[in-house]
Amino acid sequence: MIRRSILVKAFSREQLEALLSVARKHSESDYLALLLGFQHGLRVSEILSLSRENVVEGRLVVQRLKGSKKTTQKLMSPARELVEELCKTDARWFNICRKTLWLHMKEYAEEAGVPLYLAHPHTLKHTCGRLGHKGGMTIPEVGARLGHKNLGNSMIYMQATEEEAEQAFAAAVGA
């Protein structure tokens, strides 16, 4: 049986910053949704279901979907300040559906010059894992951040992207 290789789609730090900058220009709500998706490695449905009930003593508590673990993670700036404001109201945080967030993300990616094949909310979860690993997090740490029960799932985020492999090869052969 031939096993298909999984290509990890993740933003570079520069692409992520460009995307978030454009999103913030257009919509503070979309910006926060994308930022939380990245900082906490959330799935789109996890992002859009967030409410003040998910915030306990400055931490974001999320029961992960698809059989993953519950996570409790410290809110980080600048999301923390925005979430603190939202917690003062009963209003729904993100009054959009998953398709609308995806369409907005595509528009922001295009304006930011980010490749459209990356413009999908799940790319934020992949980016959390990739940038965490590249920044020195161990596989168990990445797994804990993403709520994985099985560290084999965390290994997906350790694979190099095609661009990283290309750059590494060029550096290795002096091209």
- What value does the average pLDDT take? 91
- The chain-level structural class is mainly alpha
Please give the oligomerization state of what you see: single chain
User: Proportion of β residues?
Assistant: 5-15%
Radius of gyration (CA) equals 17 Å
In CATH, the topology is named hpI Integrase, Chain A
Task: Provide the helix percentage.
Answer: 40-55%
**Major sheet attributes:** 3 strands, antiparallel
- The run of helices and strands is HHHEEEHHHHHH
Distance between the termini: 36 Å
**Arrangement of strands in the largest sheet:** 1-2-3
Structural commentary:
This protein is mainly alpha-helical and 175 residues long. It has one domain: Orthogonal Bundle (hpI Integrase, Chain A). It contains nine helices and three strands, in the order αααβββαααααα. It has helices at residues 13-26, 28-40, 44-48, 79-86, 98-112, 122-134, 139-146, 151-155, 162-173; strands at residues 55-56, 59-63, 70-74. A three-stranded antiparallel beta sheet has the order 1-2-3, with helices on one face. Helix 1 (13-26) runs antiparallel to helix 2, helix 1 packs across helix 5 and helix 2 packs across helix 6. The longest helix is centred in the middle third of the chain and has 15 residues, at 98-112. 34% of the residues are buried. The model is unreliable at 1-5 (pLDDT under 50).
Please specify the SSE layout and strand pairing.
Layout: H1 13-26, H2 28-40, H3 44-48, E1 55-56, E2 59-63, E3 70-74, H4 79-86, H5 98-112, H6 122-134, H7 139-146, H8 151-155, H9 162-173
Helix pairs in contact: 1-2, 1-5, 2-6, 6-7
